[in-house]
Amino acid sequence: QVQVVESGGGLVQPGGSLTLSCEASGNILSIHTMGWYRQAPGKRRELVAARASGESANYADSVKGRFTISRDNAKNVVYLQMNSLKPEDTAVYYCNIEASVREYTPNRWYWGQGTQVNVSS
Mind listing the pLDDT tens digit for each residue in 24-72? Predict the structure, then answer.
């Protein structure tokens, strides 16, 4: 079993900053990709940022230059630093982990429960 838990969401004023964190735990052999998605009311879930092991990060165009994804591989933690937040960033943010739990089996994707980010004055 793999558990994925996000934290750090909350209310912030436009122009402010928040940092989200996500920890994966359980029977994990290795983690390959760690990423963040978000879903706003009436919108489809979209990729915000992701980073595969040994690769550079990918960002949605809407957050480039404002958000930064980073990984602490020793702790199975991924962070999303969000700066210059806009009301349009309001959404539930979900952590997604691509992990292997046993040898010779395909990787699987695991989702967190989500954390709410509200950007409002």
Answer: 999 999 999 999 999 999 999 999 999 999 999 999 999 999 999 999 9
Q: What is the 3-state secondary structure (H, E, C) of 24-64?
A: EEECCCEEEEEEEEEECCCCCCEEEEEEECCCCEEECCCCC
Residue of 87, 94, 85, 78 whose CA lies nearest to 39 = 94
* Structure token pair of residue 112: 């967190």
Residue of 34, 35, 42, 20 whose CA lies nearest to 88: 42
Task: Say how many C-beta atoms besides its own lie within 10 A of residue 28's C-beta.
Answer: 16
Q: Is 66 helix (H, G, I), strand (E, B) or coil?
A: coil
Instruction: Please enumerate in sequence order all residues whose Cβ is within 8 A of that of 3, keeping only pairs 6 or more positions apart, or say none.
Output: 24, 25, 26, 110
